[in-house]
Write a structure and sequence with these properties.
The protein has 365 residues and is α/β, with parallel strands linked by helices. It contains 13 helices and twelve strands. The chain binds 6-O-phosphono-alpha-D-glucopyranose. Its EC number is 2.6.1.16.
Length: 365
């Protein structure tokens, strides 16, 4: 079918705004009422001793977020690898391990090669893909579709969101199968997920504000993104999005690592984007942020109303997000990360849907 931009200036914008709809469809597909629903016997996380998650690019950051979920919710040890490292490192793979490959296209050469490496070693090969007839899907024991619809923009947005949607459901399933959560907690987690499309809509309504505030960002030579816990990989994804389409150098860092290097970069020319929902580690993030402020860093704090109230003083600007259970905050905060990259690119006038030197699907090494 012919796909168009549906009134948007770029596919990337269209795809960002499709997220509430495609995520809702994905969540409906993977849950039945109060329980995660997968075909009977499709996956048994009680039998597995380790989950190995392998991917490239944005899909790799989805895996990195999911590691926090699988470990915290399900107590399942989790390794996350970049496919091009995994395939050549010759890592030992236990025959009780579950190997899970995440790929929008299902054709990324390194991810496919990593999958073939794990075949015959891991107990089960699972893939999370957007293209169900892809090579990665075909060569897996179990292929789980993310149901995001065709993604055209080279910088992945809605596929990332729905990869997280599927992985969140798998982590909840794993938590139940491993006896870590009861039925009430499962229902509550699914309820939180079901609330996300509505919250994402609220975050999308911040677009105008983000457009105005990214004017300054477009002048920066370098931008830092900070996050803690599951927000750390989202900081990496935010930096990736920005560099992909605006060509501004950007780096994501775990907030706690600030003093081990990146603080040396901070001065008043370097915007520092702190993605910090009010969670158990919020106070620690705030104290990291104070160190940046003390060095005249320009902090853009992205948090909820409570967080802004506590820590908003003295920062360059705040973006106030809807409140969400911190466990799934990376899904909600992905939206401002995407919009920041998109609007910075608009200010710079770069080719958003076809950034230089990048390809949508990398089928060669
Ligand atoms: C390319 C794309 C990225 C994508 C990565 C992995 O670099 O530009 O957007 O995240 O490949 O692609 P995959 O199809 O395996 O998710």
């Amino acid at each position: 079918a012919q796909i168009d931009k549906a009134g948007h200036k770029h596919f990337m914008s269209k795809e960002i705004f499709e997220q509430p709809t495609v995520l809702a469809e994905c969540l409906t597909h993977y849950s039945a009422g109060e329980r995660v629903a997968l075909p009977e016997g499709a996956l048994d996380f009680a039998e597995t001793d380790r989950l190995i998650l392998v991917a490239c690019g944005t899909a790799h950051y989805a895996c990195s977020v999911a590691k926090y979920w699988f470990e915290q919710l399900a107590g399942l040890p989790c390794d996350v690898d970049i496919a091009s490292e995994f395939r050549y490192r010759e890592p030992p793979v236990s025959d009780r391990a579950t190997a899970l490959f995440v790929s929008q296209s299902g054709e990324t050469a390194d991810t496919l090669a990593a999958l073939r490496y794990a075949q015959g070693k891991a107990a089960r090969i699972v893939s999370v893909v957007n293209v169900p007839e892809s090579s990665i899907a075909r060569e897996s024991d179990l292929a789980l579709p993310i149901l995001a619809g065709i993604e055209v923009g080279v910088a992945s947005t809605k596929a990332f969101m729905n990869q997280l949607g599927v992985l969140a459901n798998l982590a909840i399933l794993a938590a139940r199968q491993r006896g870590r959560i009861d039925a009430a907690r499962e229902a509550e987690l699914l309820e939180t997920l079901r609330g996300l499309p509505g919250l994402i809509n609220q975050a999308l309504a911040l677009e105008e504000r983000i457009h105005k505030r990214t004017g300054k960002l477009a002048e920066a030579r370098s931008v830092l993104f900070f996050g803690r816990g599951a927000m750390f990989p989202l900081a990496l994804e935010g930096a990736l999005k920005l560099k992909e389409i605006s060509y501004i150098h950007a780096e994501g860092y775990a907030s706690g690592e600030l003093k081990h290097g990146p603080i040396a970069l901070v001065d008043k020319t370097v915007p520092v984007i702190v993605m910090a929902p009010r969670d158990a580690l919020f106070d620690k993030t705030v104290s990291n942020m104070q160190e940046v402020l003390a060095r005249e860093g320009r902090v853009w704090l992205i948090t909820d109303a409570e967080g802004a109230e506590i820590a908003g003083d003295g920062v360059w600007q705040t973006l106030v997000m809807p409140r969400i259970d911190p466990i799934f905050a990376p899904m909600l905060y992905a939206v401002p990360a995407q919009l920041i990259a998109y609007h910075t690119a608009l200010h710079k006038g770069t080719d958003v849907d076809q950034p230089r030197n990048l390809a949508k699907s990398v089928t060669v090494e």
